[in-house]
Amino acid sequence: MKSLVRWGTTLTLVGSTLLGGVFAGNLPVLALSEQQIKEKLDSVPVYLITNQQGLPLSRPLPESQKQGGSVTGVYMSRQEAQSFIKELQGASGKDPKMKEIVKSLQVTAVPLGVIYEQLQETKNQSERLIFAFKPVEQEINGAMELLRQSGQQVKQFNSVPIFAVRFSPEQGYVPIQLASDKEQLIPLFLSKQDAQGLLTQVKPKFPKADIQVIDIDGVIKTLQDKNDPWLEQVVLVPSQESREYIQTLPRQNSNNSQPARPQKR
């Protein structure tokens, strides 16, 4: 799958040392196309549980739900998807038919952009595809902790959390600059720890810098609806676990794999 190769190229660029600078670009205001949104989402691997034929594991929705059809689990962690398969194996007991079904299950990585594309294609259908995202519990807890620190009263977080580093609550997002071509990117992290790493680097110079908690639904809606020029610089940064997995995939254009460097002001 070509998207897997793109992961290997993209993530070696943004998955290395992240050093922030001030984003100052004079770009024309252009709305992002559906293809551009998909390509941004393609940098994030998500994990499905599939059988040997590549069909994802799903469960039927209750008849009371108008959408009909079935729902497929989408894991943000490959390890958690593998753990769920082990749970199923343990729960299959002595039922030979069930044991044979569970035995064939495997974890399959796909780009998040593929999920987005499928949702867009079926959104107006009576039995549209439904995906239930399984966020990493550690990231959910981290998001809720940050929200509470900011004074918000939250009891739960019902989406995949995204972490963005800002110069201050009143200012813009902290970008990174790639050593390869001086391109400026604005990273949105799927890991609080990665966002904290960038925040630690910029805090000495920008004492009011903080981490804003958003969610993947909000990111996608912003990419769809807004015409702000900085959105072209947005890049989603997968977790360390996913970056390590991506590094095991065949890569093209390995010469592009260069660390980020600080931006001169």
UniProtKB/TrEMBL annotation:
One annotated GO biological process: protein transport
Superkingdom of the source species: Bacteria
Pfam families per the UniProt record, alphabetical: Tic22
Family annotation (PANTHER family): PROTEIN TIC 22, CHLOROPLASTIC
Record-given protein name: Tic22 family protein
